[in-house]
Amino acid sequence: MKKNKISKNWIKKQKKDIFVRKSKLEGYRSRAVYKLIEINEKFNLIKNGASILDLGGAPGSWSQYILNNYKNIRLLTIDLKEIESINKAYQLKADFTEIETKNKIKGYFGGKIDILLSDMAENTTGNKNLDVISTTELFKEAIYFSKEILKKKGSFISKIFMGSTFKEIMTLSKEIYEETRVFKPISSRKDSKENFIICRFLR
Ligand SMILES: C[S@@+](CC[C@H](N)C(=O)[O-])C[C@H]1O[C@@H](n2cnc3c(N)ncnc32)[C@H](O)[C@@H]1O
Questions:
Q1: Which class for 171: exposed (0-12), middle (13-18), buried (19 or more C-beta within 10 A)?
Q2: How far is the CA of 112 from the centre of ligand 1 (A)?
Q3: Active site includes 159?
Q4: Cross-strand partners of 113
Q5: What is d(CA 155, CA 198) in angstroms, rounded to the nearest whole number?
Q6: HSE of 115 in the Cβ direction (CA atoms, 13 Å)?
């Protein structure tokens, strides 16, 4: 499909999408917020006073939700793109996969944290298998880092794409965590391979 046909279809979809309209009404920067809300309501993850790393956080709706609804949160949001400032969140424009970024994260928190969220994804290419592979690479970077930064009872939540790497994702998650669940929020588009993995309690 040609690029401008893809973007016309995307604009059409956005206009019809109830979650896009809802996010505008509620002042959120992206419809992605409803995925985190659903995950959080189902798994009861975020608590007042938590320290949280939000990877792939631009434009910032997950961070907005956390800061709007919880008190005394220590939050670091990272993205390749600039994130417009959010009250009380520390933002870093950086590539998470670089060692320097990981060192900055450790320096910022200065200890172990409660929750690592990753909604990281590259722009989809139209080639579903390639998209699965690139999202899995980001998932792997995040889960390996979660071993270094999370408290033993911490939670790791990451976007994954269903496809050829699913078995590898599950094996790795079960090796690292005692509890592993896969969840597709209603607000995640039905025609997308997107799902989320919720892992708790480091082994
Ligand atoms: C679906 S968006 C995230 C939406 C966000 N959760 C929100 O609520 O607004 C995915 C983001 O992952 C970011 N991303 C992809 N690769 C990354 C990397 N290596 N390091 C940091 N961010 C990355 C992209 O720039 C993009 O902004």
A1: exposed
A2: 23
A3: yes
A4: 150
A5: 7
A6: 26
User: Which residues have CB under 6 Å of ligand 1?
Assistant: 29-30, 32-33, 56-62, 78-81, 95-97, 119-122, 138
Strand order from edge to edge, sheet including 51-55: 90-93, 74-79, 51-55, 113-118, 150-161, 194-202, 177-183
pLDDT tens digit at each of 203 positions of the chain? 555 666 677 666 666 789 999 999 999 999 999 999 999 999 999 999 999 999 999 999 999 999 999 999 999 999 999 999 988 789 999 999 999 999 999 999 999 999 999 999 998 888 889 999 999 999 999 999 999 999 999 999 999 999 999 999 999 999 999 999 999 999 999 989 999 999 999 99
In degrees, to the nearest 5, what angle opens at C-alpha 127 toward C-alphas 125 and 133?
Answer: 85
How far is ligand 1, taken at its centre, from the CA of residue 119, in Å? 6
Q: Which CATH superfamily is domain 32-202 in?
A: Vaccinia Virus protein VP39 (3.40.50.150)
Length of the chain equals: 203
